[in-house]
Amino acid sequence: MKRILITGGAGFLGSHLCDRFIKEGYHVIAMDNLITGDLKNIEHLFKLEHFEFYHHDVSKFIHVPGELDYILHFASPASPIDYLKIPIQTLKVGSLGIHNCLGLARVKNARVLIASTSEVYGDPNVHPQPEEYWGNVNPVGPRGVYDEAKRFQEAMTMAYHTYHGLETRIIRIFNTYGPRMRLNDGRVLPAFIGQALRGEDLTMFGDGSQTRSFCYVDDLVEGIYRLLLSDYAQPVNIGNPDEITIKEFGEEIIKLTGTSQKLISLPLPTDDPKQRKPDITKARSILGWEPKVSRAEGLKITYDYFKSLSKDDLFRMAH
Ligand code: NAD
Ligand code: UDP
């Protein structure tokens, strides 16, 4: 039986990865310090013989008994309000955390896959973004703590690959959504759906002309699974190229939820990228991957999930 360590395993993406690798017949070890994650995301796995949870900060030395075949490094605050609140921990998990994971991988002779991000492209001057684009990041702006941590993480991973011959994989994830996102994580989808469910106006930042391309979580997980088992060590974009402005996205959420509230404009955060859309030529040719779930289908599933939360959760998670 293959053994896999998933850091950030109690988070949104990490918990879906735990589900997938359990389904594929792996022994799954989730590690998380719960700084932005929630045990509720994985409590359904606790009773399983082949699932373990370690409450641990991966920026500190990691000890895992027994063999490991794979390590997925997903631990990191991921939403702008999270990493702006905890900037130093964000920089640490992207630097000390990945160093610990890579060191552990050498000892265990394991393959490592890291969660990088479209944020390595910053506010991109090239559109859509191919992996060859080096990006346009402000290192000392508010988003720098996240973007530069992720860029360092890629550099460190590539150095272990080149100098130690470690097997490594790098995925650049574009905006992904689905059940188990936190309603109060500040990302646009939970923000808009939460506001609609609470009967509040939807807070669009700026004039809403900035674009994003939203990928449903199951599609992303399939891409991660394929990349992990591939033999490709260079970065690969995984995301849905179906691009939309934030204003149009808000209008879609208003229609979906049937709310009578409206879009209101708040100031645009500093360095907010103006456009983002993945070039997925590599994912298509190397992994035979492309997204299958349309935004209409994915949003419906995600809305049903948020609707199923109790009123208490809805208001507790509002702020
Ligand atoms: P999330 O906040 O739901 O999950 C992150 C998890 O990491 C949380 O459970 C948190 O408690 C844990 N964590 C943070 N620091 C830790 C530390 N020092 N030690 C142990 N655990 C720690 O966010 P997510 O959306 O699931 O993102 C997961 C990963 O994917 C992150 O690395 C993020 O940068 C990356 N990513 C996500 C997206 C997206 O659209 N969701 C896009 C690009 C990249
Ligand atoms: N956004 C918005 N209202 C919100 C939250 C976000 O208009 O309540 C905008 C934000 O300015 C950005 C886009 O939606 O242009 C996506 O933001 P998110 O935080 O989800 O992801 P990221 O900026 O990291 O891509």
TrEMBL record:
SUPFAM superfamilies: NAD(P)-binding Rossmann-fold domains. It is a single-pass type II membrane protein. Its main location: Golgi. It is found in: Golgi apparatus, Golgi stack membrane. The keyword Transmembrane applies. InterPro entries: NAD(P)-bd_dom (IPR016040), NAD(P)-bd_dom_sf (IPR036291), UXS-like (IPR044516). Pfam families: GDP_Man_Dehyd. Pathway: Nucleotide-sugar biosynthesis; UDP-alpha-D-xylose biosynthesis; UDP-alpha-D-xylose from UDP-alpha-D-glucuronate: step 1/1. Keywords: Decarboxylase, Golgi apparatus, Lyase, Membrane, NAD, Signal-anchor, Transmembrane, Transmembrane helix. Its EC number is 4.1.1.35. It comes from the Bacteria. The keyword Transmembrane applies. Its cofactor is NAD(+). Residues 5-301 form the NAD(P)-binding domain. Belongs to the NAD(P)-dependent epimerase/dehydratase family. UDP-glucuronic acid decarboxylase subfamily. This is UDP-glucuronate decarboxylase. It comes from Aquirufa esocilacus. The lineage of its organism: Bacteria, Pseudomonadati, Bacteroidota, Cytophagia, Cytophagales.
